[in-house]
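Subject: Sanity check before I submit

Could someone independently write out the structure tokens for this chain? I want to compare against mine line by line before I put it in a report. The sequence has 581 residues.
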Amino acid sequence: MKLKYLGISLAIIVLCSCSALKPQTESQVTKEQIQKVQLTDVQKRKFDYFFYEASREKMKGNYEKSAMYLTECLKIDATSSAAMYELANLLVAGNEAVKAQGLLERAISIEPNNIWYKLMLAELYQGNKMGFQAIKLYEQIVADYPDNDEYLYGLAQLYQRNGDEEKAISAYNKLEKRIGLNEVIILEKEKILLNIGKNKSALEELNKLTAKYPEEARYYGFIGDYYLYLGDNDNAKSYYNKVLEKDPKNVMAYFSLGNIALQANDTTGFTSYYKKGLAVKSTPFEVKFQRILPFLMDSKNIDKYDKYLTEFMDVIIEAHPYEAMAYVYKGNYYRSISKTDLALDAYKTAITIEPSNELIWQDYLLLMIDNPDYSKIYGNAKLAITHFPENAFFYLLAGSSAGQLKDNDEALRLLNLGLKHVIDNKPLEAQLHANIGDIYYANKQSEKAFESYKKSLEIDELNIVVLNNYSYYLSLENKDLDKAERMSSKCVELEPGNSTYLDTYAWVLFKRERYFEAKYIIERALDNGGNESSVIVEHYGDILYKNGDIEGAVEQWNKAVEMGTESETILEKIKQQKYLE
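---
Independent answer below. Compare away.
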């Protein structure tokens, strides 16, 4: 059950249950309504059974069934706050926070001292943009539990989120008096003070940390961030350097200094600081990669950063030589700058390190398709199948490559095996049928080919490659030309500048003896790059012949020969100066 569909289903469950479930505020609830129902033994057993089943289904992830069982509980006992609370949780999971709020308000009216109900309701109030109500409820919670630091912190957060900075500062100060100097509280207060323009007070808060913990390097980094936020780069650099004096392996200080250098167009300083940070072996690979990701994503300036990025990734790999993802990211980078061979080498290393990573195999094989060497794709796809025998995608690549290598029996075997392993992936299933159709047609089994194309289009009716191939092969067979024309015209509609699809459309019209229209369409194909295809040039000659231009037809046929056409009839056509089937 996908969670995104849960909201509608749960809404129906709640609306169809007893009227006692309608959302109500505490002021709307009467004493009669909240009086606890006295259950008979039979009712209690039924209630317990449904509640148990609701819990069991929830643990299994069957939220809709769980909600149905809870609804049954509430039909038996409309005052069960526990059932309301559990159902409210399911409603929240299904993005039905307003209905969940109503249930919790009623649950609290029945069990007013339950802290868990109140905490959840306060969160819902805030999420439902009822900040005032959230604060009011949390103030009540803090009053009921005056010694609970967690609740006081929660109230301070609510004040802060709802724009009451003065009360937030007051709550944080009260909490600080209780638990002593605390990094989290100091940083929250600094954020508020900067937001309201009290910069000096914000700095005083940070200075408390360095005064009490003078050897803690990170706290000087906080002050560096403070100055950086205010645009005072000189003071920021001074404090980041203090961080490195106390902790030479603090990568965040190196990166911050590098960013300041880059901002000042000091590329030497930028690369130097970044390389020092990236070289720290104790810092996780992921942390480092997040720092260079913005440069990798900046497609407009990718050439500008090319030299630096190559160096940066080499430094990361030197620090983490057995981190497969480092090579994957390096491969992705090389691919983005069209260095496919280097990208493939990086991916190959990643697979050597982590041969059981299915996603790396998929990306590696997809990368191979950019500059296809079908022998290599076939071999690697077959190897991937040995690791992941249930992955239909690998069968598709192996089978398609076998077809390109003219091993059609092996291609059909692999592609049909792929069909057996497809699970909930309609595009992949459609593509397998399409490729099977191509192999059947190559085997001169046109009826089986057309059946496979039909199956593919039943799944994906807009697969433009299948539409084109199917319509072209029908025209060659002089079959279902009406259908061929519909499919081919759809291709041209979807990609009006594609010379291959224009050529197919022209050829279908030619087969339908609509020669004038065919000439118009194939000339569009030639204008869109078709003049570099010997097949299209030969077709142009055929169409010119049928339009009565014999001299022009022979000229185009001769041009196709010069281009290296593999046509079996073209020399005879030139000799006889006549179109031949």
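---
OP: Matches mine. For the report I'm noting this point. The first helix runs from residue 6 to 16.
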